[in-house]
């Protein structure tokens, strides 16, 4: 089975202690002067790997014979020695001379490549958890964390990660989290660099970097990222012929920021959006004669964004967030004179799906509530059908003043007509005065279920089910089905006396006792 084992052992210094004691100090040498000797040793060992590939198969790890056990022990000793050598070269002090640092780094890189090549030759990843020495597993973990080596040799790095996953799941999970954090930090730096650079930009790549930077906000808390993201979203929605892909992806970033679990991130996002709204709809744009300045707010005039701000921003427990959300909506609702006609029409269209939620804030005591009331007024630019629906919804509010205002908005719809032939009769004043309380119940109705009525189940059917369950001649599958149906019957309390008289309690107890005693039936 192993025709050339003596040669292989000599090549790996695992069968001859003198040879092992000779090669190990050379691999552990801290002196750059012996680098050429170090490389010759690695060349010798690399040739030995080729011999091992022809001589040892993966079945050796399942071989329980004396020869197989001895071979496994020697191979494990070799892997353990390599792990110790890797740890030595990886953990050198930073105080040593520059030439020595270069030597250790080159030695670490070379032995890492050789170690992974050896493992791929003799040890399948699925068997590494049982047979890989602890020192080697630790060295592989540090190797996986070496990002510079991983970028230089990606295939070797992937192989090391595969072995780490089999050897230590906790270390592999830690590696994944560290790698993810490193990617987020690197993406954040690249994003800030590209976002602030002059000239043409690759928007798709920039949005991908922005997404990674947002994912890392919980780690680095670099809030200037948020300002850049909001301005990019605004810019991408200002194009005359915008890209649907860029609009969709930038909107995802904005929604992720608006709903971020971290309070500082949410607060900064709302503050940046508010500043942008003020800049686009501010009175200063009249003096500048910038008619299209409101185009920078196009990213905000979308039903998904408006719903996020209305449903969650206004309800946020943090005052910084809910106050900013309220101010954003106020600026947009009051910004008709600063918007172009097309922008105002798009805003009305985007507001339709959000109206049922937004009308929950209708009132007469604050500015936002009054603005919401005016949305359903006849003087507004909404379609007649939408305004009528909005006014009817206001009749369900708890505030009497809001309901009275809603009636005043509904009356024109009730009395309007296109021609004299379609004229409606005048409404009686008493009827009008009762309209605000149209949906108010003075005597709340009891909608609880009536459980006193007769059960829909038949006693005969229940008795048949119990007979199947208690029969000794019926097939086991039928008895199980009957038991499942009886469990449903038990949910009807009117059937409890019937089942109790049939003796279901004693029957169930006997089943439990039989199961505990090992009765498979």
TrEMBL record:
Transmembrane segments: none
Any Gene Ontology CC annotation: centriole
InterPro entries per record: ARM-type_fold, Rotatin
Source organism (scientific name): Notothenia coriiceps
Protein's GO biological process: centriole replication; centriole-centriole cohesion; ciliary basal body organization
Name of the protein described by the UniProt record: Rotatin-like
């Amino acid at each position: 089975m192993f025709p050339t084992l003596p040669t292989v052992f000599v090549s790996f210094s695992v069968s001859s202690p003198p040879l092992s004691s000779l090669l190990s100090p050379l691999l552990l040498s801290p002196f750059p002067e012996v680098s050429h000797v170090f490389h010759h040793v690695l060349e010798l060992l690399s040739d030995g790997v080729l011999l091992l590939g022809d001589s040892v198969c993966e079945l050796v790890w399942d071989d329980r014979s004396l020869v197989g056990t001895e071979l496994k022990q020697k191979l494990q000793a070799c892997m353990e020695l390599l792990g110790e050598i890797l740890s030595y070269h990886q953990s050198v002090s930073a105080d040593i001379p520059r030439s020595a640092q270069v030597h250790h780094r080159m030695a670490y890189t070379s032995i890492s490549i050789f170690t992974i090549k050896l493992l791929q030759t003799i040890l399948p990843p699925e068997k590494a958890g049982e047979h890989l020495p602890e020192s080697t597993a630790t060295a592989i973990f540090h190797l996986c964390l070496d990002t510079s080596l991983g970028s230089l040799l990606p295939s070797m790095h992937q192989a090391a990660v595969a072995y780490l996953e089999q050897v230590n799941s906790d270390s592999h999970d830690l590696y994944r989290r560290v790698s993810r954090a490193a990617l987020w930090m690197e993406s954040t730096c690249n994003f800030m660099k590209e976002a602030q650079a002059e000239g043409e930009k690759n928007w798709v790549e920039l949005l991908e970097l922005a997404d990674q930077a947002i994912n890392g906000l919980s780690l680095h808390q670099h809030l200037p990222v948020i300002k850049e993201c909001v301005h990019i979203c605004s810019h991408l929605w200002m194009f005359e012929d915008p890209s649907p892909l860029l609009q969709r992806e930038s909107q995802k970033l904005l929604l992720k920021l608006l709903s971020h679990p971290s309070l500082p991130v949410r607060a900064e996002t709302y503050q940046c959006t508010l500043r942008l709204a003020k800049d686009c709809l501010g009175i200063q744009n009249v003096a500048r004669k910038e008619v299209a300045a409101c185009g920078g707010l196009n990213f905000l005039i979308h039903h998904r964004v408006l719903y996020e701000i209305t449903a969650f921003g206004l309800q946020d427990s943090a005052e910084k967030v809910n106050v900013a959300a309220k101010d954003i909506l106020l600026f947009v609702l009051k910004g008709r004179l600063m918007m172009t006609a097309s922008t105002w029409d798009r805003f009305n269209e985007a507001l339709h799906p959000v109206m049922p939620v937004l009308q929950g804030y209708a009132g007469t005591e604050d500015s936002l509530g009054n603005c919401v009331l005016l949305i359903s007024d006849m003087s507004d630019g909404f379609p007649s059908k939408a305004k009528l629906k909005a006014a009817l919804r206001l009749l369900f509010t708890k505030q009497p003043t809001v309901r009275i205002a809603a009636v005043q908005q509904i009356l024109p719809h009730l009395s309007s007509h296109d021609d004299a032939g379609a004229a409606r009769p005048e409404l009686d004043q008493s009827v009008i005065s009762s309209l605000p309380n149209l949906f108010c119940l003075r005597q709340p109705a009891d909608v609880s279920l009536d459980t006193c009525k007769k059960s829909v189940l038949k006693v005969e059917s229940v008795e048949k089910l119990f007979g199947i369950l208690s029969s000794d001649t019926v097939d086991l599958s039928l008895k199980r089905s009957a038991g499942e149906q009886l469990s449903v019957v038990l949910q009807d309390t009117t059937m409890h006396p019937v089942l109790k008289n049939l003796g279901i309690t004693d029957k169930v107890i006997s089943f439990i006792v039989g199961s505990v005693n090992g009765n498979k039936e």
